[in-house]
Amino acid sequence: MRLFSRRTTLKGIALGAVAGWGDPFALSEETRESGRESSKELPAVDVLVCGGGPAGIAAALMSARQGAKTLLVERYGRIGGMAVQAMVGPLAGHVRSRQVDEILKHIGGRRVDYEFLDLKYADLLQAAGCKILLHAWITKPLRIRR
């Protein structure tokens, strides 16, 4: 699986535009029927977090810090939810907790640079050991028998 960075994101966009890049993690019909894994499949994870908004980021962060193999899957090209999509202030309100305080410290407080907020979230998640998959839709659960 590719790590999330500007370089890999831009490289993927460029390759996709040039080569008509399909879904790199799609399961083939043969794999679905046989239950065998191929090198293009998603890795086995303990926790799959669907959605990279504030709740998904918190869930993935805490899961990864507990030692679970965690994958955060986001539909769009940026994590952070409405904070990065529509510049809605992240973590609004006056919640006092160790986790919220740590995240606010890492992203620069309640007044953030929305242009780079997703990268700050990604750094925080990757430091905890969480993998991130962008531009991926969750359509249905799939169980491979082993």
Describe the protein.
With 146 residues, the chain is mainly alpha-helical. It contains 6 helices and 3 strands. It has a 3-stranded parallel β-sheet with strand order 1-2-3, with helices on one face. Strand 1, helix 3 and strand 2 form a beta-alpha-beta unit. Helix 3 runs parallel beside helix 6. The longest helix is centred in the N-terminal third of the chain and has 14 residues. About 11% of the residues have low confidence.
Structure at a glance:
The chain is mainly α and 146 residues long. It has helices at residues 6-19, 29-34, 54-65, 82-85, 98-107, 117-128; strands spanning 47-50, 70-73, 131-133. α3 links the parallel β1 and β2.
**Share in β-strands:** 5-15%
* Largest sheet features: 3 strands, parallel
Uncertain regions spanning at least 5 consecutive residues: 17-32
Q: How far is the N terminus from the C terminus? A: 21 Å
The structure class reads: mainly alpha
The H-and-E topology, N to C, reads as HHEHEHHHE
Overall body shape? globular
What is the count of β-strands?
Answer: 3
Strand neighbour order, sheet with most strands: 1-2-3
Q: Helicity range of the residues?
A: 25-40%
Would you tell me the overall average pLDDT? Answer: 76
Rg result:
17 Å
Number of helices: 6
Identify the notable features of this structure and list them briefly.
8% strand; 3 strands; 40% helix; 3-stranded parallel beta sheet; mainly alpha; globular
